[in-house]
Amino acid sequence: MKKRIGVLTTGGDSPGINAALRGLGKAASGVYGMEIIGFQDGFTGMAQGLTVELEGSAFSGILTTGGTILGTNRDRPDRVIIDGVAKDATDQILENYKKLKLHALVCIGGSDAQNSAYYLMQHGLNVITLPVTIDNDLTGTDTSIGFDTAVEVAAEAIDRLHSTAISHHRIIIVEMMGRETGWLTLAAGIAGGADVILIPEIPYHTEKVAEAILQRSHKGKRFSLVAVSEGAISQESVRFFEKARLANRRLRQGEEQSEIEQRLDTIEKHAAGDTLHLANRLEDFTKLETRITILGYLQRGGTPSATDRVLATQLGTACAALIQEGVFGVMVGTRSGTVVTTPLAEVANQTKAVPLDHAWLQGARLVGVSLGD
Ligand code: F6P
User: Fold this and answer.
1) Is the pTM of this model over 0.85?
2) How far are the Cα atoms of 36, 53, 122 from residue 56, in angstroms, in the given order?
């Protein structure tokens, strides 16, 4: 009997999702004779039974396209939003899996996809995942699909901003995505020749950033490019929140204490990535005109790079082969160019931060980049 597999994309989209779907689909149907059912808009679609039959031709012409042909959102099995109302759709999802007689479910995406897949695995489904995120923050793979393209886009933006920064003798701060990790900012910052790179893993001293910029100014370089992660945070903020937490623990107890702790967590999250505040402070310190560019969703859109297409094809096809072998409960990733699998238990709810001794950080320092520390 033909094996039938379900596939969905969930969480933020990334360039290369369609290439991964194509690799998976072509190998699964063309080589292993599987039937493939796509779910529209992630777990919301799976809960509602919104299926698309993906036949061979569905996988043609999508290698180079951006976005996801299946649609996506941020819903989780235990929290989907239907007609504006959030509900736990775990039972419907399990039922639809059974009703459609699926042999396995492939979840494609970043941390949201890994967490939800692990959850469904614990509810007895055969699940397997592919790592697709511009953040590159998943453990279990050297690189996630989409990262390379986002780095290219962001590096090109820095290149373009250089000429205008030079002409106007300005500081230009470029804010990049990446959530709580600095992979994207670090790679694009190095590739684009940023003078300062600020990432969440290294809380920065604003004065030191300003000093680095002034030193450049004294050497006649009256412009500076600052690449900053959306999750970067200043040492001042870190210290402030440490003190506030300490005071909270000293002064309060029980429910009141944990309520304040939670509020501090939320406020701290907002304090990270406060690029406007950073710009104002740098302008005050250096007296150089300062401008901001937030790259935002430009980094997620558009055609995937050749490197991402290759990675997506490698991992997508490997995923089909693993399903054929009966391997489930894993994420399919890559280590030094080889396909590896990692149990979802080790990938879900984990974040791969930039290690402080990473060679990229060392390289950046050695070419004179200030990391704000
Ligand atoms: O995880 C990918 C990502 O683009 C992050 O870099 C960013 O913080 C987040 O998604 C934005 O999420 P949303 O698409 O829900 O606005």
Assistant:
1) yes
2) 9, 10, 31
